[in-house]
Specification:
The complex is a heteropentamer of chains A (642), B (171), C (470), D (104) and E (501). By secondary structure, chain B is mainly alpha-helical. Helix content of chain B is 71%, strand content 0%. The longest helix of chain B is centred in the middle third of the chain and has 26 residues. Classes of the chains: A mainly alpha (642), B mainly alpha (171), C mainly alpha (470), D mainly alpha (104), E mainly alpha (501).
């Protein structure tokens, strides 16, 4: 067995980088800090590739099943004799896959940013934050302990917050960062309570132990969590659902998705890293991590399925109407994550039943490449035109060939056109859905058509449509920006060809999958249809889109306005939370609670004013009171009190 | 009813009557005179009780001293013959109530109390006896109180002088 | 008789000697300057204070009319100390007064009366001591001869105390009538708790209550304190009050022990009333002297709580508290006396911005007020804690809760003064004052007393070892 | 004297006591207030003497007490009058209602 | 080690201050004093570890006892366990930071530093006392200097706030006083002799009725110090009017006196009553947490924001104590330490901002990150700690409280826990609002552009506190190991007595 202790370096290198850059970056390193960040991440990336090699090909497998390897584990905070937060590193197929994805995409983004963020005043800070994020994300995926996940969960949240708010003097960026944090925080509340519930019944926070106990039908823990119920729902379902809420928040599932489009206020490479490839799939990862437990609770999985499917559809519809290219990408991300979610939801544990799980992970893997590619491409575009809006673009294919081609590849990949990566993963998802739930299959199929449509709508609007007349065309940008695009494009092409099911499955054993060509006709045709429709509408400048929009009428408007979810939120927060809870609370505190204290004071003073007549200054009154006092005392102590 | 009883009741009536007049009459000088009568009545009561020495002191100190002092001070501070201002009705009402309640209370207590006589041997209350006891340091001697009172009188004297002395000599 | 007589009555005799020395100086032909006379007097008082500690002995004299023991001597020493401090503080005021010697003669006569009262073994001596302590004080209250308020105060004092001593006498006469004796020891054997006797006891009790300003017998206090010269106010509030409390404890604990049930409840009722009313009035005062008058009334409420404990700890705590109270109150009055003598300002308003001009005096006053409020690390904290603790030993927590709440109210008004001095702004603050050495010494004694009496536990231990209770 | 019960004498003294008290409560002239005080003290004296004579004739405590009370009454009256005179000098009035400058 | 040094040292410093003149001397002496305090606290910590490592399992270490008032059986009895040491270390951090933050206090510096140091003496004394009398003594010592600090050097409606604070806190100590007396007179160490000694009392069984009668006094009394709803109203006014260092002290130390007292006196000595009343405590704490958080959301003044958030955060302390599980109590202690450091840092940041911009209104600030990156970063760090970000102490403490609270399986307690958890969302809302408005966003006032970033002393102070926060956040096991044996003792004691009955 190899000693995997070196894996700890993978997250720790970015952490060190964060500390160094955070403390001294602004003064000591300045522009040099990009190199520092990239360099350290390169080391991490190499290490994680090495780890992957070691794990998958050398010694991860025992008896044909990939093992959970605890590389290291330290007790970090002991709550009670058997419940503790441990800091550790766990290697299993998904975590190894994730560290590869995270380090690799992050490296690409780091490289891309060298050009993209050049000349920024807070260049060092940017890289510090990126490193922080990478550290947190790596920590998250390597966690051995559910609470460790929660901690890194929060940390990725805050790095996302910091990066979205990177342009801190832009009020919209500040607002977006705030929104992102608060919405995910709200979801995390569910996660936290879910953890409390699971941990209380499982009497552990350790993931392996937890899974072991809650899947063993004989264990006392299992009995206690399944027999107890609240509002007719078993405690286990409650716990898992609450944990899923946490995941849904991070992964922008309906109705907690509202922060994701706004999060595009951050620098585009950041969006590529965090809001496309890595952080937003943390929810999927979370469910996958606890999948053995989820798989024994059908109710929780159903929730995952329907939420995922609905989000996929909803996001796809909205994406068709948006004009901000990053927002389109954001909704597309949401939609794709929806795919991953429902794919998990329709899956079961082990063997053939675990196809959905495998498919979900596969899609996560491929999606990371093409979606980050799309974002980086969009970044390059924005870098050139200094705008996010489609209306300001068009005909850019001549100015930026590399971007154009890579973007096209990514679009094809996401649309599920063979032989690009997306085709393979999506195919597996559809198969899994078809096998278990026809309704979901229908939705998925329809969504995949929509995906092709809006992606090519995007593609044509940027690179074709009208002929552009850029005067200040300064080209595509530095080579540091181009190289990542090329690398990612290559990945987007070949990633799907990996024999993924050999490595990552629900139970660790290899799974035989095969592409059923007949089955894949429908989705590919639908995708091609979508592409053709998009080409028809957007390849050249015309008024067809408006006509279509007018024909759709209210539906279009609703979709364009993102189905008013934001408005509902604003209503709830502003009107209900602020006006009906916050304001009264503040008012009560000021006037009633504090008023009570002040009242005591003023009553005392009033009484004092009231009885001042006692001290009239007249000596005869004094004597009279004196005598009254005596009579009173006599009355009390001679007659009354005996 | 024996003569002694009659004398007692007459004396009592006299004391109380003139006492009431002393505190109610509006003319200050008359008030002082009524007080004088009341005090003399009390002296009479002491005679009746056969404590002649106290009766004598009563006449000497009160009638001869205090009342005279009061009358002098009235002359100093008051135009004679003018009527004194009346107390407010409320004050009077409260005073009457307080006094009546107080009296009722005390009288109730006294009349229900059985006083116990502890000894029947009577001691001579003649002047010589009192005088020798007053200055005796041994049994039943009152030399210590006597000295204390003398300090008190000294102090009172000093106090009076300082306070009442005219401030004309101020330089 | 013989040598014992001199030893046992040492305190009183010393005072008498001083009074006569002063009298001779007065009637002597030599013209003395005020400063010289004050120097002599202060030296004499110091000697008197120091002499109090030597050659003490327990014993009774004159058919038990006079008794003394270690505790009583200690009490007298405490009073001597207080008088000495007051004398030092009065220096600024007396320097320009025409009747310095008379002042001291009266003051010492009054003090002597208190000594007799504390040492009294029967009701006659007690009564005489009480009158001897009161009548000179009334005259002294009038010692700001030109001030109208002073005369008014004196009048109120003498009238109220005449009335109160009338009632007290009535009570004594009834006590005499029901028990047939004036001697304390015999008296306590003859107490049978009959209604008339109870009434007589109530009258006696109110006689004390009047002197130590227990509500509702307190009404004279504020007016007299406000009108009198500061030296007399402090004497009234500290020495007179202290002496009467000493006498009160010994009378209650030793003589009226059979009536303990009754007086415990009376103390309960009256202490609540006293604390509450005293505090309620204190919060609305603007004249510092008047303010301290009410605050001292409230303090008496706390003392009554301690007295109600009726244990050894109770006695000790009360005496200990009085000692601390002397330091604290005199610390406060010392500053007020200085300011009053030099600027004629006595209002709290006038003290605004006092810290800017007179930081040292402000700190003294602040520390004194904190001590009065019972805030650590000043001795007042210890005093009050032990006092209320003694009261709590009876298990009457209603009383303790009320006392605790009243401590908060009292804190409010003490802090009000502190606030005025430190925080409020004033266009014309009291100017920088020149402090003479006597006042400095007095304030120094007070402050060190306030700081040390609490920490140095043997003070309490000593008092405790002398105390008795039941 | 033994044909009069003690309570009758006490009645007189108590009545006198409250008469004096009434005077103290209501007279506005300071000197008359002082006079009322004298009545009060006298009533107490009667008590002392009467108790002494009736109940405890073996000692003279009551009688002596009354002697001292008389003395003190004199001293008190003297000081009071001095104060009143002083007050009269500054106020030009001996109405007690005028001596109420300090209050509340 | 003679731990009385912890009290003697500040007193000596204070006395030395009396002989100083001018700001320079005063602050140097104070700085030396505070640094030595810190060193002493660390020395104590190390010695404590050594002692424990050597196998000394006594409940209290470094005990020493001097007879003070022999007739009343009052001793100056001191000793420390893990909880006390944690609090002592906290105090020493904040004192040093406070002194550094007041480096340029040129208004009456001598008085200012004197009072500051006196306060610290009170706090140390309180934490090391094992005798209820001395404990009470030091509790009150730590009140009045605050009145002066706020009233003289404060801002806004300072007199009102100072008075309110003093009265309410003294009210609290008056209640404590009643509780202590009640305890005292129901103890018996043989021959009818009563005792104030904490350890002795803990060995006896106080009758349950007595506990039930006096527990509310002791708990509510200390609770007022610890911002127990509805007696928390001194917190916002007091904190907001106080000068920076005083705010730091107030929130960082004073409020901890309350929590410590609730735990050490009320809960430890009267466990039966604590069980009986725990639902009330939990109820009030939950209200404080939620309602404090919502009230914070509506505040517009930075100091009010932090003050109200303190109400909410201190609610966790009381919640932890009220839940009566070992974990929750450990969490409560951690929360005290964490909140102390965090809120002190917050106030330091606000103080730095205020001293430059002369406003604390959120609406008037903006874009400070541009001119003062250091201060703004400090502010953000404090905020993040406050909203419970992992890596900072707040997370550790809050999670421990939640974890412990959840162990209490009663449904109502569960609901309370969930509500308390929910406050982390509200906390995020108000913290991010404050941060977003004042530190980020466009610069609202052109004259802000010329403002300078933190000076060395401020950097040092903030750095010190941040080190504390991060150290706990990253390595909570140290703190946990320090505290757990002590909370274990408390819990075992409680369980023992409950089962005895």
């Amino acid at each position: 067995m190899t000693n995997y202790a070196y894996v700890s370096l993978i997250p720790l290198l970015p952490l060190a980088c964060f500390v160094v850059l955070g403390l001294w970056g602004r003064k000591r390193f300045k522009t040099f800090s990009g190199i520092v960040g990239t360099g350290s991440l390169l080391a991490s990336t190499i290490l994680s590739f090495y780890t992957a090699y070691q794990y998958f090909f050398v010694d991860g497998k025992v008896n044909g099943v990939y093992q959970h390897i605890i590389a290291m584990k330290y007790t970090w905070l002991q709550f009670s004799p058997n419940v503790s937060i441990d800091m550790g590193i766990m290697l299993d197929p998904i975590s190894v896959m994730m560290i590869v994805v995270v380090t690799f995409i992050s490296l690409m983004v780091h490289v891309f940013s060298l050009g993209y963020m050049k000349g920024e005043e807070r260049f060092a800070t940017y890289y510090a934050f990126l490193s922080l994020f990478t550290f947190s994300m790596l920590g998250l995926v390597l966690s051995t302990n559910i609470f460790q996940i929660y901690m890194f969960w929060e940390l990725v949240g805050v790095s996302s917050y910091l990066l979205i708010g990177y342009y801190f003097d832009k009020p919209s960026a500040v607002a977006a960062s705030k929104k992102a944090f608060i919405v995910t925080r709200f979801a995390d509340l569910g996660f936290l309570i879910g953890i409390l519930i699971l941990a209380f019944h499982a009497e552990t926070l350790d993931i392996s132990t937890l899974i072991e106990r809650l899947t063993d039908h004989q264990s006392t823990q299992f009995v206690s969590i399944t027999t107890g119920s609240l509002l007719g729902v078993s405690i286990l379902t409650w716990g898992l659902t609450l944990v899923f809420i946490g995941g849904a928040g991070k992964s922008a599932m309906f109705p907690l998705h509202i922060w994701l489009p706004d999060a595009m206020e951050g620098p585009t490479p950041v969006s590529a890293l965090i809001h496309a490839a890595t952080m937003v799939v943390a929810g999927v990862y979370l469910v996958a991590r606890l999948f053995p437990v989820y798989s024994i609770d059908g109710a929780a999985l159903d929730i995952v399925t329907y939420v995922g499917a609905f989000s996929a559809l909803l996001a796809a519809v909205i994406a068709c109407t948006q004009t901000d290219i990053k927002r389109v990408l954001a909704y597309s991300t949401m939609s794709q994550i929806g795919y991953m979610m429902f794919s998990l939801g329709v899956s079961r544990y082990g063997g053939e039943n675990g196809l959905g799980f495998m498919a979900s992970m596969f899609h996560l893997f491929t999606h990371a490449f093409f979606k980050s590619l799309l974002f980086l491409g969009a970044g390059a575009v924005i870098h050139l035109v200094h705008s996010n809006d489609m209306k300001d673009m068009g005909g850019l294919r001549k100015f930026m060939p590399v971007t154009h081609i890579s973007f096209l590849i990514a679009c094809l990949a996401i649309s599920g056109i063979p032989p690009f990566a997306g085709f393979f993963s999506k195919e597996e998802i559809l198969t899994a859905a078809f096998d278990s739930n026809k309704l979901i299959y229908g939705v998925a199929l329809f969504t995949s058509g929509l995906t092709a449509f809006y992606m090519f709508r995007l593609y044509f609007s940027i690179f074709w449509k009208k002929e552009s007349h850029l005067h200040n065309a300064h080209g595509e940008g530095t080579s540091t920006m181009k190289i990542p695009l090329i690398i990612l494009a290559v990945c987007a092409v070949i990633a799907g060809l990996l024999p993924f099911s050999n490595f990552i499955t629900s139970d660790g054993a290899a799974l035989e999958t095969h592409i059923n060509l007949v089955f894949s006709i429908a989705p590919v045709l639908l995708a091609l249809g979508g592409i053709l429709l998009a080409a028809n509408l957007y390849k050249t400048e015309n008024n067809k889109p408006e006509k279509v929009a007018a024909a759709l009428g209210g539906f279009y408007k609703a979709a364009h306005s993102k189905f008013y979810v934001d408005e509902v939120y604003i209503f709830v927060t502003k009107k209900i939370v602020f006006n009906l809870i916050g304001r009264p609370a503040a008012w009560i505190d000021k006037n009633i609670v504090d008023g009570l204290m002040n009242l005591i004071a003023s009553v005392t003073e009033k009484i004092s004013e009231l009885i001042k007549g006692l001290q009239s200054g007249k000596v005869q009154s004094y004597t009279l009171y004196f005598f009254a006092g005596i009579v009173g005392l006599a009355a009390v102590f001679i007659y009354l009190w005996k | 009813m024996t003569a002694s009883q009659i004398i007692f009741y007459i004396l009592s009536a006299f004391i109380l009557g003139s006492g009431i007049l002393a505190v109610t009459t509006r003319k200050i000088f008359r008030s002082a005179i009524w007080l004088l009568f009341s005090l003399i009545g009390i002296a009479g009561l002491y005679f009746w009780l056969q404590v002649e020495f106290i009766a004598a002191i009563q006449i000497v100190v009160y009638v001869g001293g205090i009342v005279v002092l009061i009358i002098f001070s009235i002359f100093l501070t008051q135009k004679s013959g003018s009527e004194m201002p009346k107390a407010s009705a409320t004050r009077k009402g409260f005073a009457v109530a307080a006094v009546l309640i107080g009296f009722a209370l005390v009288w109730q207590l006294i009349s229900h109390h059985s006083f116990k006589q502890t000894s029947t041997t009577t001691l001579d209350v003649d002047v010589a006896n009192i005088g020798s006891q007053l200055l005796s340091t041994t049994d039943h001697g009152y030399i210590l109180p006597f000295e204390v009172v003398s300090i008190l009188l000294l102090a009172a004297m000093i106090g009076c002088i300082v306070i009442a002395m005219k401030k004309t000599e101020a330089v | 008789m013989g040598i014992d007589f001199f030893i046992l009555m040492k305190s009183e005799l010393l005072l008498a000697v001083i009074i006569f020395i002063l009298l001779f100086i007065k009637v002597g032909s030599k013209e003395w300057k005020n400063e010289q006379m004050l120097n002599i007097v202060n030296v004499l008082l110091l000697v008197n204070f120091i002499a109090g500690f030597f050659g003490n002995k327990d014993g009774m004299l004159f058919n038990d009319m006079f008794k003394t023991n270690q505790l009583i001597v200690l009490e007298k020493c405490i009073l001597n100390l207080g008088t000495f401090i007051i004398s030092l503080q009065a220096y600024t005021w007396l320097k320009n007064h025409k009747h310095v010697l008379e002042f001291y003669m009266l003051l010492l006569a009054s003090l002597m009366g208190m000594f007799y009262m504390i040492s009294s073994g029967n009701l006659l001596m007690f009564y005489l001591g009480l009158e001897l302590s009161t009548i000179p004080l009334a005259a002294l209250a009038n010692f700001d001869l030109e001030k109208r308020k002073s005369s008014e105060a004196a009048f109120k004092l003498i009238m109220s105390s005449a009335f109160s001593s009338g009632l007290l006498l009535f009570g004594i006469s009834m006590m005499y009538g029901t028990t047939g004796t004036l001697n304390f020891t015999e008296l306590s054997q003859h107490l049978d708790g009959s209604a008339l006797q109870l009434f007589a006891f109530i009258l006696l009790f109110t006689g004390f209550a009047f002197k130590i300003s227990v509500v509702p017998f307190h009404l004279w206090t504020a007016d007299v304190y406000e009108g009198s010269p500061v030296a007399i106010t402090s004497f009234l509030s500290v020495i007179s009050k202290g002496a009467f409390i000493f006498a009160f404890i010994s009378v209650l604990y030793n003589v009226f022990k059979p009536l303990a049930d009754t007086w415990y409840n009376m103390l309960f009722l009256l202490s609540v009333l006293t604390m509450v009313i005293g505090n309620l009035f204190a919060i609305r005062q603007n004249n510092l002297k008047r303010f301290l008058a009410f605050s001292s009334i409230a303090q008496v409420g706390f003392i009554l709580v301690g007295i109600s404990g009726s244990s050894q700890a109770g006695t000790a705590s009360v005496i200990y508290f009085i000692l601390i109270y002397i330091f604290s109150n005199l610390g406060a009055f010392g500053v007020i006396a200085l300011v009053s003598a030099l600027t004629v300002k006595e209002g709290i308003e006038d003290y605004k911005g006092f810290y800017k001009t007179n930081p040292l005096l402000t700190w003294v006053l602040t520390i004194a007020l904190f001590s009065l409020a019972g805030i650590p690390p000043t001795a007042g904290f210890f005093g009050k804690f032990f006092l209320i603790m003694a009261g709590a030993a009876k298990g009457n927590y209603t009383l303790i809760i009320i006392a605790a709440l009243n401590m908060i109210v009292s804190l409010y008004y003490y802090l009000r003064v502190v606030k005025a001095m430190f925080m409020d702004k004033n266009e014309q603050p009291i100017e920088k004052l020149v402090i003479n050495n006597y006042s400095k010494l007095a304030l120094f004694i007070c402050v060190s007393g306030i700081v040390l009496t609490g920490f140095v536990s043997w003070v309490y231990d000593y008092i405790y070892s002398l105390s008795t209770g039941f | 004297m033994n044909d009069i019960p003690l309570t009758h004498i006490l009645f007189v003294s108590t009545a006198l006591f409250f008469i004096g008290m009434y005077g103290l409560f209501t007279r506005r002239n300071m000197i008359t207030m002082l006079m009322s005080v004298e009545l009060i003290l006298n009533s107490v004296n009667i008590n002392f003497v009467a108790f002494n004579k009736y109940l405890f004739p073996d000692k003279l405590e009551g009688v002596f007490f009354s002697i001292f009370v008389v003395t003190i009454a004199a001293a008190e009256a003297a000081v009071a009058i001095a104060i009143i005179i002083n007050l009269y000098r500054s106020h030009n009035s001996i109405d007690v209602e005028d001596a109420g400058e300090m209050k509340y | 080690m003679n731990i009385s040094l912890l009290v003697i040292l500040p007193i000596l410093t204070a006395v030395a201050l009396l002989f100083c003149n001018g700001l320079k001397q005063v602050r140097t002496v104070s700085l030396i004093g505070a640094t030595v305090q810190l060193a002493l606290a660390f020395a104590l910590l190390i010695l404590y570890w050594n002692e424990r490592a050597a196998g000394n399992t006594a409940q209290m270490l470094f005990e020493s006892s001097y007879t003070w008032f022999a007739p009343l059986h009052i001793n100056f009895h001191v000793g420390v366990d893990g909880i006390s040491i944690a609090m002592i270390a906290l105090t020493s951090f904040i004192v040093l930071a406070g002194v550094l933050m007041s480096w340029k206090e040129d208004r009456m510096p001598k008085e200012f530093f004197f009072l500051l140091i006196l306060l610290s003496a009170g706090a140390y004394g309180f934490f090391i006392s094992l005798d209820l009398f001395t404990m009470f003594f030091f509790l009150e010592v730590a009140v009045i200097p605050k009145f002066l600090l706020i009233g003289i050097w404060g801002s806004g409606k300072k007199e009102y706030s100072a008075m309110k604070l003093a009265l309410m806190l003294m009210g609290g100590s008056a209640l404590v006083f009643v509780g202590l007396l009640g305890l005292y007179f129901n103890t018996d160490i043989g021959g009818g002799v009563h005792s104030f000694d904490l350890l002795q009392i803990s060995q006896m069984h106080i009758p349950v009725e007595v506990q039930k009668m006096f527990f509310p006094f002791a708990f509510a009394g200390f609770g007022i110090f610890g911002a127990l709803f509805p007696f928390h109203t001194w917190v916002p006014d007091g904190h907001s009017s106080a000068p920076t260092a005083a705010s730091m002290f107030l929130a960082g130390i004073s409020m901890k006196l309350g929590g410590y007292g609730c735990l050490r006196v009320a809960t430890y000595l009267m466990p039966d009553a604590a069980h009986a009343y725990s639902w009330i405590i939990v109820l009030l704490a939950t209200i404080a947490i939620i309602y404090g958080a919502f009230a914070t959301m509506m505040q517009t003044d930075l100091k009010y924001i932090n003050a109200y958030s303190s109400v909410s955060h201190c609610g966790f302390v009381l919640l932890g104590i009220g839940m009566l599980t070992q974990t929750s109590i450990t969490g409560a202690v951690m929360q005290m330490v964490s909140h102390g450091l965090m809120t002190a840092l917050f106030f330091a940041a606000i103080g730095m901002i205020y001293s430059r911009t002369h406003t604390r209104m959120v609406a008037q600030l903006g874009g400070l990150l541009k001119m003062m990156p250091f201060i703004s970063t400090v502010f953000v760090i404090a905020g993040l700690c406050s909203l419970g970000l992992p890596g900072f102490s707040g997370f550790v403490a809050e999670m421990t409280v939640f974890m412990g609270s959840w162990q209490n399986p009663d449904t109502m307690y569960r609901i309370a826990t969930i509500l308390a958890c929910a406050s982390i969302v509200v906390t995020a809302v108000y913290i991010l609002r404050a941060v977003g408005q004042s530190v980020m966003g466009p610069v609202t006032d052109s004259h802000y552009l010329g403002l300078k970033d933190a000076s060395w002393n401020e950097k040092f102070a903030a750095g010190l506190l941040i080190i504390g926060i991060v150290a706990i956040g990253i390595a909570p096991f140290w703190l946990n190991e320090l505290i757990t044996p002590a909370t274990d003792t408390i819990m075992q004691h409680a369980v023992k007595l409950v089962t005895l009955k």
